[in-house]
Amino acid sequence: MKQFDEMGEANDSMTLISASQAAKLLGISRATFKQLSDMYDFPRIKVGRAIRFPKQGLLDKVDYVATNYREFLSLDDLL
């Protein structure tokens, strides 16, 4: 029996989500997600004309950035 997450999707490593779903998952606006996605080069897959984000890859990248955030901040951000 499959387990489902809070978004009602199968909880597996191959789940692809839209930018809107990713933003909701992270609790941020879609515009903020777009900025972060470009800034930190979130993993993405183009499916036809749509861009989708591998859910587990996205969560892994966010966890990495959050853990190592000082590597990603410019000197101006730290002052």
Automatic annotation (TrEMBL):
<dbReference type="Pfam" id="PF12728">
    <property type="entry name" value="HTH_17"/>
</dbReference>
<protein>
    <submittedName>
        <fullName>DNA-binding protein</fullName>
    </submittedName>
</protein>
<dbReference type="InterPro" id="IPR041657">
    <property type="entry name" value="HTH_17"/>
</dbReference>
<feature type="domain" description="Helix-turn-helix">
    <location>
        <begin position="17"/>
        <end position="58"/>
    </location>
</feature>
<dbReference type="GO" id="GO:0003677">
    <property type="term" value="F:DNA binding"/>
</dbReference>
<keyword id="KW-0238">DNA-binding</keyword>
